[in-house]
Amino acid sequence: MSASRILAIARRIAQGFRRDERTLGLMFVVPILVTALLGWVLRDTKDTTVGVIVVNQAGEVGQRIYDALVTATTGAPDGVEVVSIADTVDAAKEQIRHDNGDIAIVIPATLLADVTSGTRPTFTVISKGTEPAADAQAFGKLQGVFASLARELVPAGANPPVIPQIKRETVYLTPEADQVDVLSPIFLGFFGYFFVFLLTGVSFLRERIGGTLERLLATPVTRGEIVLGYSLGFGIFATIQVIVLTLFILNSVDVPAIGPLPPFSIGLGVDSAGSPFLAFLIALLLSIGAVNLGIFLSTFARTELQVIQFIPLVIVPQGLLGGILFPTAQLPDVLNTIAHALPLTYAVEGLREVMLKGSDLSSTVVQTDLAVLAGIALFFVVLASGTIKREVA
Amino acid sequence: MPDPTGMPMTPPPTQAPAVEAIGLRKRFGAIQAVDGIDFALSPGRIYGLLGPNGSGKTTLIRLLTGLARATGGEARILGTKMPSRKALGTIGYMPQSGAIYPELSVAENLGFFARLEGHADRASIDRVLELVELGERKGTPALNLSGGMRRRLSLACTLVHEPKVLFLDEPTVGVDPALRVQFWTHFRRLAAAGTTILVASHVMDEADRCDELLFVRGGKVIGRGSGAELRQRAGTDNLEAAFLVLSGLDPEGNPIQATSGSGAIL
Description:
Low-confidence stretches of chain B: 1-6, 258-266
Strand order of the largest sheet of chain B: 6-7-8-3-9-10
Strand order of the largest sheet of chain A: 2-1-3-4-5
Strand content of chain B: 15-25%
Strand content of chain A: 5-15%
Oligomer: heterodimer
Number of helices of chain B: 8
Shape of chain A: elongated
Low-confidence stretches of chain A: none
Number of strands of chain B: 10
Shape of chain B: globular
Radius of gyration of chain A: 27 Å
Helix content of chain A: 55-70%
Number of domains of chain A: 2
Mean pLDDT of chain B: 84
Distance between the termini of chain A: 59 Å
Mean pLDDT of chain A: 84
Helix content of chain B: 25-40%
Largest sheet of chain A: 5 strands, mixed
């Protein structure tokens, strides 16, 4: 073994890096950027106030609880504030549906009788159900407020203090919905976006470095034709990908035990509350944007490796800010603004609306998301056309 | 005068030029890649663009085909000022790099470029396949072809739409001698049918097959004429030496003192 040969190889690598400023930048600057972004999101995520709707079915006793709750939460000292009182459970659900409150608590009609007879009363807590983590956080805060209230409200002589039972209900999905149910819209948007971007970026880079783009540009083909041809070509595969992914997420096929293999199921079997076609349309618009983003960014890469190095720049911020890990409303203001310039944010929102809440085209949220995604796709088409350099249009 | 393939060379022209460069310039930052080139190329003739690597040949072709914007002067193809999409339909460009799709078969590559040019008929494809002798490799992915075969496929993609003006950047690199002769026979046939061909090369051994040569160095044309004329002007018996002399060097490549007159031959 020769130390000089080992050193020669190491030196060759260092020399290569020295001349490859882009890789150096991506190696040292991007991890800092991504880590800083993650730190920012984690540290400065806003602790939003949980808006509570009270449904009083217990008459005067309930009113006392309501009044005490309002007094205790005015100004949201514990991050909880009573926002309204509703007459019925349905009215409370409707308010949550319209984002007029995050969580509703139903004070049961049997409260007084239960407490007097020593039975644990059952309070029903209603949350949205589309974001289990946010729901759990809201529920925890509400429990804290109730624990301190209980000491004041419990009738004298009740010993030990009556601890109410909690029954959970959700506006969307069911309280038993697991992470897979909730995350399935994100799978559809994120993986479609990610793979299409990568595939197009690498393919178009090969056009650029292989000389075929130059040959194409010496024919009467227009830049628009190239970009639209690419969008259509990759769009077909993106469509198939989205169809396969949608089918896999929404269906489940049970396979019985075969020999030593235990029974298993293929597919996630998630129930989409809304139209799978609408979900598909959202994912498709996102993919068309990804095709053209790939074409655009291929301009800035010289090798396939460099396209892959764009992943932390393109994919990670969208993953962090797109409403996947943290609700966009809780992001610091600057990051919230950035999040609303990213296509994945709209796709995740739209897919959640459709698949979890069952919204259709009449929903303004879905309409906005579709319009913005189409706008972003168009913007990337124009951007991609601009990177195909030729002196004729 | 017969060329080495035995076919008669095209007589000097009288028609309107097929390709014109008028004070053509291109600058990349501090580098003047093309430095005021003027010429007119006549229809039906083969021109050789000769010069060392980095002399500006490829940039000149990119300016003529409208792939790059000139920083000065203008280029015209068949009388149309470039860049013009209309004129692009009349030209064929074979880039220096392979410029074919490795994952596509021979026929698929040809079919693709033919469709872009609006010549997707089977006869056009079969004609060029026969020319480059790849008929039996129709279904082979370009990835599995030898280097020479890929060059042949690249040429076929350039010829499939029967262009009026051909720009060939190092077309015979990696092509074996027998096939090279066939290439040139075909180029000569195309020229006889009226096609104007500009062949860029840094090897001199093919130069005598051209009707006329343009020696390029430092972004300028330093000599123009037939091979015989250029040798005679430089007072040497081979083109390589003629190129060096016209570049202001002696036949060994050393600078000549007091090079009066050198570089003035155009």
